[in-house]
Amino acid sequence: MAIHIVEEANRCLGCKRAFCQLKGCPVQTPIPQVIDLFKQRRLEEAGELLFQNNPMSAVCSMICNHSGQCEGACIQGRKGTPVHFSSIENYISTAYLDRKEWKPAPSCGKQVAVVGSGPAGITVAIKMAQLGCAVTVFEQRPEIGGVLEYGIPEFRLPRSLVQKYRHVMCSLGVRVRPSTTIGGALHIDDLLRDGYDAVFVGTGTWRARKLGIPGESRGNVLFGIDYLVDPTSVAIGQNVAVIGAGNVAMDVARTALRSGARKVTVYARSRHISAIDDEVELTELDGAEIMCGKAICAIDDNGPVFETAIFDEDNNVVG
After folding, report:
1. Which helix (H) or strand (E) holds 303?
2. 140 belongs to a structural domain
3. From CA 126, how far away is CA 132, in angstroms rounded?
């Protein structure tokens, strides 16, 4: 056990009104209780508490906006450094996934179909299996995970973690049908015909958002979410422009640098960077340059064409 994790846990004040949980966490993770169990060396109970509240706890510990959520709301951060719960959560959650002996629950006689195996689909499949339902997951891609497998780079989220979740599901009795599209040969009506009592549809938001500018269909243009599915399938060249400054843009920039690009520039129209602060810093450390005030108006064979944005005294774009 890394000593800094214990030190972080000991810094927790155990607030009765825990802002980290009540205001900072979208899923109300019982942070003070988890830390208290951890400090008592009751690791399995702490892991169980995290998992039952949110089966994706191990994932969230790696990719959540901690500085803007749990750690950003920590009272210790008002005058100093907040408790880094993400490190504690990651240690507990990954250990729990590895050590827990998963067994199917007694059958309740119900069948559930889960369409899509992203974070939502995995969570529903696990929860339903724990209630005794016979669950089948339908996934159109060869591997489960959705955005966890195909949308988040390996350096941010190890693929081995996705496989751990597959092991959990299969151990609970969940059946997985990969490379099966619901809406192709099979439809929801077929699932209901075959006796499923409920169907959960969690197909994700894979359709890229267009900029609505001339040149988006050119061969030197890629949508970020499509590029991240398989970066090795594309020859991106050595000079890459990334339009936008959200988390996906940072993932694309960092991936491009790892895929042979020599110069990567992230262009933002405003001075507000929507990506997580930590991701922005890591992107710059990796070697990408971030340029603000660049409004894209077209893309030609030489790359993007910009207009320089004009800001008012509040840093709002006025032209």
Report:
1. strand 303-308
2. yes
3. 10
Number of domains in the chain: 3
Residue type for position 210 = K
CA distances, 274 to each of 71, 194, 246, 248, 311 (Å): 18, 45, 5, 10, 17
pTM of the predicted structure, to 2 decimals = 0.91
Residue-wise pLDDT for 79-138, tens only, equals 899 999 999 999 999 999 999 999 999 999 999 999 999 999 999 999 999 999 999 999
DSSP string, 150-194: HTS-TTTS-HHHHHHHHHHHHHTT-EEE-S--BTTTB-HHHHHHT
Residue 27 placed within a domain: yes
Nearest residue to 203 (alpha-carbon basis) of 262, 134, 277, 147:
147
**Which amino acid does the sequence have at 256?**
A
181 and 141 within one domain: yes
Question: In degrees, to the nearest 5, what angle opens at C-alpha 24 toward C-alphas 21 and 25?
Answer: 65
